[in-house]
């Protein structure tokens, strides 16, 4: 028994060392403003915000079958923990690119240059009266510096990019699947938003249930959201980040990229604020000059990718000569 207690204490200690305090208030949706009484009541989970569409809130205290736990209008599932969870569409016919998003303001602003660990549980809805018939990929988390909302169920400005997302199709309806990952904050983010931020052309799907419709309708439950500083990142990662130089910044359109010789060759990809790749090149030299003659002025993210590293730098392209 003493040995078991020691191992448990060691596990708790290591967990505390690896990841810091959760920056997501009400991460498992337990705290309620009032109990849900029907659909589209994400605002009843304390702190959580509707960023688009009509996402739903489920709790054992619900007074309606539509929002009850474990049985509800879209399926049957027990919470990953506690007594509540939420749900949203990642794809919904007949509207093209129909999506739903939820989000919350973090308890502290993210620190630029700091690596954060993100994780949340998802489960594919199945068996409800709504007739969900599809599973999709790309469910993930996006971080923003502001709160946005859009009417209808169309993707907002955050299209085809997310800081953390699952590139495989999640098909498990019985259990909870963990989506997790690390990213380096390149802005002072204040909000986390969860959903599918990729359009239909990039969202592969599997139809697992024939409900008489040819279109794909995909809906996932969400629970246990975590965001915290990742203290397990190897110091070599930070050394590599500092050793890759991209200058000048701001730039008038001519940029020099300096790489350590031990990571050559590397792939360079440049993304605009919508997550679209506007420039891509394989780098074979320690110094490469890049001419951004064809892209407009604005903020861009340059990713240098190797077998072991993904380094992202933000650059500003100003008026060109």
Topology:
Elements: H1 2-18, E1 48-52, E2 56-59, E3 71-72, E4 75-76, E5 84-91, E6 101-105, E7 115-124, E8 134-136, E9 139-144, E10 164-165, E11 177-184, E12 191-196, E13 205-207, E14 218-229, H2 235-243, E15 245-247, E16 254-258, E17 266-271, E18 277-283, E19 287-291, E20 298-305, E21 310-317
Antiparallel strand pairs: 1-6, 2-5, 3-4, 5-14, 6-12, 7-11, 7-14, 8-13, 9-10, 9-12, 15-16, 16-19, 17-18, 17-20, 20-21
Describe this structure in words.
The termini are far apart. Mean pLDDT is 84; it is low at 1-18. The protein contains two helices and 21 strands. It is elongated. The protein has two domains: 19-229, Galactose-binding domain-like (Jelly Rolls, Sandwich), CATH 2.60.120.260; 235-317, Immunoglobulin-like, CATH 2.60.40. The chain has helices at residues 2-18, 235-243, and strands at 48-52, 56-59, 71-72, 75-76, 84-91, 101-105, 115-124, 134-136, 139-144, 164-165, 177-184, 191-196, 205-207, 218-229, 245-247, 254-258, 266-271, 277-283, 287-291, 298-305, 310-317. By secondary structure, the protein is mainly β. The protein has a five-stranded antiparallel beta sheet with strand order 1-6-12-9-10, with no helix packed on it. Strands 2-5-14-7-11 form a five-stranded antiparallel beta sheet, with no helix packed on it. The protein has a four-stranded antiparallel beta sheet with strand order 18-17-20-21, with no helix packed on it. A hairpin with a 6-residue loop joins strand 15 and strand 16 (254-258). It is 8% helix and 37% strand.
